[in-house]
Amino acid sequence: MKVLCSIIIVICMLLSIGVHAQNTKEKSSHPNIVMIFIDDWAWNGTPVPMDDSMPNSGMPLLQMPNLEKLAEQGMKFQNAYSGAPQCSPSRVALQTGQSSPRNGFTVYMNSGGQKYYNESKKYSRFPVVPNVSDETIDADATTIPETLKPLGYACAHLGKWHMRGNPGDEGYLVHDGSTSNSQGNSKIPDDPKLMFSITSKAVDFMEAQVKMDTPFYLQISHYAMHEGRECLMKTREKYAKCNEVQEYYKKLGKSPNVKVSYEEGPKDKFTISASQDPAVWLGMGEDLDGRIGVVLDKIKELGIEDNTYVIVAADNGYRHKFYPNLKQPLHMQKWWIWQGGIRVPMVVKGPGITAGSVFKGNVVNYDFLPTFYEWAGGIPAELKNIDGISLAPYMAGEKPGEDFLNRNLYFHYPHYRSTVPHSAIISGTKKVLHFYERPDIPLLFDLSEDVGEVHNIARENPKEHQALYKEMMEYLNKVGARIPKKNPNYIPEAYERDREYYKRKGGLPFEGSRKLAEDER
After folding, report:
1. What SS3 state is found at 33?
2. Is the pTM of this model over 0.85?
3. Which of 27, 283, 470, 475 could disulfide-pair with 236, CB 3.0 to 4.6 Å?
């Protein structure tokens, strides 16, 4: 009898071990997801050309071998868009899978603790009355960690948050708190933009989850490449010696051996401000790439490379005006819904993604949430009240159909700043913009032939313009977007006296074809 009991105990133990092994196998089969989110990065701001047919869709002087390797091993997205032309609303779109007009977080400005932000007094004599914006992620919105946690994921957010609220309240197990731009201006010589310390914490998080055999979502939201530029001095010195940068110093009347200063105040020919120095921006990019490399190396060292997706993308477009001899391929910059403000670099590597592949369909950052959910084993169709579409099938090689290729992407910025209130819809290769100050000027562009948005073809194609405009306004109304109204107290003289009036002029609507700016191709 004792022998029989012993045999039964052994069998139970073996069965228990088998069940545990099976559970471990199932648990480990969930892929890890690492999102490396870069701040203020132009579509043409990397050495990886986002469009192989356009030489100026990349910056060859900037050395980022790890990003280039990632593109060689994964998929490059030629037509990737941010969720908004400013960092905070774009980050909210990423977290919620919702467009800005749906989630209501359309701008970030100082609020003074009010529920909504509105500068109506400042703009009380402007052509239209701008709208308020939500200040935080809506309580009823489901975020990335809230979506992945039920599937067994541990989630971390390191670096720049800038959405008010607290990452822990949105489901993040590990985070840096409610950070904004200020924390990133570290002025720590060996930790520029905190990129080294953020990476160190990211490595610790990955090691801990692998040790516990827990699938994870890790978002590394770098403060680079935002203003307040910083880099290691040795990296800056490398780029300061480049011929192109030396030419730039010469144009400014600077010494060839000019030294950078992070302090405010007037500069002589022997010093240059960090914000004006191309060598600092280039150095920041190379230092950032080194941190990307550390993450990739750790993933390989931990033995999870074959089961980990790595995404590198930007929060919004930008315009690197100081960069020597660069002709910009896109119109305008951050804050604008012109292509320069919303088109961004994006590269993804992971299981099932063909090395060196290029995806040419339109994608937007609110596609990430349903994509991550599908990777984690969920069914994207179950997700409610989102605008994004899972990209998982297309990254696995499925050819996109016309429904996907011609779907509508929506952008909404009903505010003033250095911009004016405007909205846009992109459907396939066609784009309609609407400026609330000038509803009399219809705008339609064919992005397949006019990526720089030079030729407004709305007058020649009134039916196509009207159809897309109607779809856009119907969507904005459907999701309850706030719409600017005509201002009965408009005074042209007051509008033109505003200190940012001339910043706005370059991005205003136009009939026919516009003249190219000096730094455009």
Report:
1. strand
2. yes
3. 283
